[in-house]
Amino acid sequence: MLRQSIESAQYTAIRYAERLADAGAIASIGTVGDSYDNALAESVVGLYKNECVKIDGPFRSADDLELATLSWVHWFNENRLHSSIGYRTPIEAEEQYYREINPRQQPLSGELALH
Fold this sequence. Notes:
The chain is 63% helix and 0% strand.
């Protein structure tokens, strides 16, 4: 059974690569036929399911799920503490980055810029 699953995944990856070539497209991440590009997506999907769907659900409608998803994505991208950036929010990390590359004082999020 596992062998059949692996063979199916390899066949799908080969067909995908062929379809990209037919369309003149280039894969944006990973190399053709590997599964490394799926690891990040699967990790984020797992977080989404645990942190949004299971905690806030069940939902009354697809619209309710969509709104919860939008809220979770905003929180994940802007306010969540990420261990890979020193347990800071992405906003804090971005502000520090721009302060380091441009020593002139950058306005903080929400402050008016005078230019």
